[in-house]
Specification:
By secondary structure, the chain is α/β, with parallel strands linked by helices. It contains five helices and eleven strands, in the order βαβαβαββαββββββα. The longest helix has 13 residues.
């Protein structure tokens, strides 16, 4: 199997400060599906500037529903499910290509949290399952977020993704307050 059997899936809402860097790091991807929750900033205009992207709009109810909707729109065997503020290293291309030829149902990646492009010395971001066979996956809600449930074995990818959200700190603090209330 080749990268032609891979679709990148991204959930967005007002990601103008992040999505361009993420899509730049994925120029190698043959197909990118963006599920946008009716962004009111320039997210859609930025995404549409990338020729391999397809944007679908859907009202946000929760992350699991958005991701499961996206899975229903994917036509390839493999999905690389990411956030709009992930930046992939150059070596990820070969590693992903090798992984989709393996026997595992899915693969986890390590993360390095960054603030305005600068890596934080230490963080508590656990590995996350980001690459999986579409037929073996579905999403469930987990607290304020979501988790992908995989039928089968999960391997590890040999690279680290940068989690580099450049939205204002005030937005992050508001989100944390909201999550605590939930």
């Amino acid at each position: 199997m080749s990268l032609d059997q891979l679709t990148v899936m991204v959930i967005t809402f007002n990601e103008q400060t992040n999505i361009g860097r993420t899509l730049d790091s994925l120029r190698w991807a043959p197909s990118i599906l963006v599920i946008d929750s009716y962004s009111t900033d320039s997210t859609q205009a930025i995404v549409q500037a990338y020729p391999k992207t397809r944007v679908l709009q859907r009202k946000f109810q929760n992350f699991a529903d958005q991701c499961n909707f996206g899975l229903g729109e994917v036509t390839t065997h493999w999905v690389l499910s990411i956030d709009a503020d992930y930046v992939f290293p150059q070596e990820s291309v070969q590693a992903i290509e090798a992984a989709i030829q393996g026997d595992a149902a899915a693969y986890r990646a390590m993360f390095r949290y960054c603030i305005y492009g600068r890596p934080v010395r230490g963080s508590i971001l656990p590995p996350r399952t980001v690459l999986y066979r579409k037929a073996r996956a579905h999403y469930v809600n987990d607290g304020h977020g979501h988790v992908v449930m995989i039928e089968g074995s999960i391997g590890s990818l040999p690279f680290t993704i940068r989690h580099d959200d450049r939205k204002p700190l005030s937005r992050w603090l508001q989100s944390q307050i909201s999550y605590a209330r939930q």
